# Entry
Amino acid sequence: MVTLKGEHIFLRALEPEDLDFIHEVENNESIWELSNTQTPYSKYLIKQYLDDSHLDIYEVKQLRLVISDYENNVIGLIDVFDFDFRNRKAGIGILITDEAKRAKGYGSEALSLLINYCFNQLQLHQVYCNISEDNEASLKLFKNQEFQIIGLKKDWNLVKGVYKNEFLLQLINS
# Structure
């Protein structure tokens, strides 16, 4: 049985009430490196995105879920992107926005729930992620979920005038 509920957190769909939260996240320049964001997003564009968030993953090729605790505190976001049903693969990204909740197991629990959803509900064969070589916390998180580093993309991202390498990690459903 596929569930998006864990022991300490659950994953939920985006709601109109998430507008201010998503606007804050998308316009936080300190995390633009993680999402390859180049410019700020207006509330108007984010509202349009939220209005369309009900569309099927098979149509829009992505799914964004909110990570929440059982007191309904928003902890972060987790995404499925580049959904390719023909080849049964997709990318995964996660962001724990509440810094006080980092390194407490919430990201691991959310990632485990999403992997289970991808393999059992979406019937994917594999999931992958792209992580900057210097993002030790994310590398540890994904490696702990059995992701394997399968490649290093040299000078992949230009960040504040410096090129950074990026790892490609993959998890194949066995």
About this structure: The first strand starts at residue 9 and ends at 13.
